[in-house]
Amino acid sequence: MEMSFKGITIASMAFAMSLTLFVANAADPNPLQDFCVGVPDPHAAVGDTNNLLRSRAVMVNATLFPALNTLGVAMARIDYEAGGVNPPHLHPRASEMLVVLEGTLYAGFVTSNLQAGGNRLYSKVLNKGDIFVFPQGLIHFQLNIGSTPAVANAAFGSQTPGLVTVANAVFGSTPPILEDVLTKGFQVDEKVIGALRAQFRPSDQPDFHSYI
Ligand SMILES: *[C@@H]1O[C@H](CO)[C@@H](O)[C@H](O)[C@H]1NC(C)=O
To answer: Where in this chain does the record put each Cupin type-1 domain (predicted)?
Structure first.
């Protein structure tokens, strides 16, 4: 199954989008708002990648951009340092289309185990101009495998796609999931679970044992 298409450039996407806008405008010439204030400093819009993952995703959904309300779309910009990762996560309410603006990414998603050959990984190395699609609700990721920073834009088919980051949800929930669930669920001992919890425990959450 070929999930990415080389040679589709930003320019051709922009052309396709302008066609779409033209059609939409023909049906409804009214702007959705009187004006839209841009970001004063464009550099401030770039994600700060100074963190352990060395990546930053900035989601523009209906909360941050109320003009999206009722329109069923949202976007994100993702910045990755060399080696930076957008860790395994999913969007419960939207499929996602990713386009690489700069750099080289290894991207993939895993099918649900209800499908034939379940838990199957579909992955691809993506270069500038390549696109990839992540189906709604499936775990996916991107890793910058190049030696320079990478940038991607993502488009979502929902104004509020939602975000579940697997490690943070499982090992960093508030309150924590009972340890037995995790040791048995992941078939490892408490030390391993403890180490993972230490990585993902929210900073305002003292210690697992104070919850039971
Ligand atoms: C919109 O995205 C922001 C940032 O990821 C998030 O905090 C907020 O909860 C999202 N809004 C909705 C309605 O999902």
So the answer is: 50-194
Q: What domains are defined for the chain?
A: 55-166 (2.60.120.10), 172-211 (no CATH)
Q: Residue of the nearest CA to atom 7 in ligand 1?
A: 63
Contact 66, 36 (CB under 8 A): no
Tokens of 181: 């669930």
> CB of 162 closer than 6 A to ligand 1?
yes
Q: Is the Cβ–Cβ distance between 199 and 171 less than 8 Å? A: yes
Digit-coded pLDDT (tens) for 187-204: 999 999 999 999 998 776
Q: What is the pLDDT of residues 21-33, one digit of tens each?
A: 444 444 444 545 5
HEC assignment per residue over 63-105: CCCHHHCCCCCEEEEEEECCCCEEEEEECCCCCEEEEEEECCE
Cα of 48 to ligand 1 centre, how many Å? 18
Q: Tell if the pTM clears 0.90, that is, is over it.
A: no
For the chain, the first-to-last Cα distance in angstroms comes to 47
Task: Report whether residue 76 contacts ligand 1, using a CB cutoff of 6 Å.
Answer: no
Contact 28, 158 (CB under 8 A): no
